[in-house]
Amino acid sequence: MSTTVAFEKARAEGRAALIGYLPAGYPSVDGSVTALKAMVEAGVDAVEIGLPYSDPVIDGPTVQAAVEGALKAGTTTADVLRVVEAVAATGAPAVVMSYWNPLQRYGAAAFARDLAAAGGSGVITPDLTPDADDTWIPAAREHGLDTVFLVAPSSTDQRIAMTTAACRGFVYATSVMGVTGTRDQVGDAAAGLVARTKATTDLPVAVGLGVSNGAQAAEIAAYADGVVAGSAFVRRLLEAPDHAAGVASVAALAADLAGGVRTR
C-alpha cells in the first residue's frame, strides 16, 4: 500500500497528513512496536520506521541516542522488518527510513522483496540521491515500493526536478539545512521549497526536520501536504521514567500534532 493512501485520505478531509518517526528496536523491538501503534491510534497517518545504523550522519543527538540504544540491544534488519509487519497490520502505511549502506549490504533486490513481503510501503533514503545508484529504484519498482528522496533549501530547481521524477509516494522536503532535532521555529525556507517542489511534481510534498508541537504542525500544514515529526517523538521516549510513560507521552504528542494538521 503506497503512502499516497494516507495523503489522499487527509486531502479528502481538508487537512495535511501527519507522519511520525521512531527507530525500530528502541527501547526494544516489541517496545518500539507498542509506541508506534500508540502513535497511529492517536492520529498519525503514516509512520517512518528507522533502521538503526552506526553512522547516522543527518541525525541529531536525540535520534542518535535512541539508535545507539537499539544497536546495543542487538536490533537487526530482520527485527526492523518485523516491526514493519506489526505496524502495517494496523492499516497505516509503514515506510522505512534508512541510510544507503545497510540496504546495500542487505542487497537492494533482497531488501525490496522482504520489505514488500512484510507489508512495507517504501523507503526514505536520506543520504541517497536518485543518480547515485542504479540498483535501488528498479528493485523498488519491481515490488511496488515507494522511493522517497529528499530535497533541501539548497537544491537547485534542476536538482529538485530530477529528484521528484524519481520519487514515488511523496517527496520529503527538509525545512532547514542541518541535522535532525526539534526547533523553536520551522525554517523560513520551507514554504518556498515546497512551492518550488510542487512546480515539478503532482506528488504530495511533506515537510520534516524540527517539528515538535501542534502549532508548528499547523504552520506547515498551511502550505504542505504532510508534516513529519521525528525527534520530538524520540525525545518523549528517551525522557520518560519508564516505557509505559513513554508510550503515553508519544501518544499525547501525536494527538497534539494531529490537532495541528487539522487547523491548517
Q: What would your notes on this structure say?
A:
With 264 residues, this protein is α/β, with parallel strands linked by helices. It has one domain: Aldolase class I (TIM Barrel, Alpha-Beta Barrel). The protein is built from twelve helices and nine strands. It has a nine-stranded parallel sheet with strand order 5-4-3-2-1-9-8-7-6. Strand 4 (122-124), helix 7 (136-142) and strand 5 form a beta-alpha-beta unit. Helix 3 (61-72) crosses helix 11 (231-239). The protein is globular and about 45 Å long. Mean pLDDT is 93; it is low at 177-184.
Poorly predicted parts: 177-184
Name the structural class. alpha/beta
What portion of the residues fall into strands of 2 or more residues? 5-15%
Mean of all residue-level pLDDT scores: 93
Radius of gyration: 16 Å
Q: How many H/I helical runs?
A: 12
Total of domains: 1
Active site: 48, 59
GO molecular function: tryptophan synthase activity
InterPro entries: Aldolase_TIM, RibuloseP-bd_barrel, Trp_synthase_alpha_AS, Trp_synthase_suA
Enzyme class: lyase
In a few lines, what is going on in this structure?
Pathway: Amino-acid biosynthesis; L-tryptophan biosynthesis; L-tryptophan from chorismate: step 5/5. Its EC number is 4.2.1.20. With 264 residues, the protein is of the alpha/beta class.
Looking at this protein, list some descriptive labels:
TIM Barrel; RibuloseP-bd_barrel; 264 residues; tryptophan biosynthesis; alpha/beta; aromatic amino acid biosynthesis; tryptophan synthase activity; globular; 12 helices; 9-stranded parallel sheet; Aldolase_TIM; 9 strands
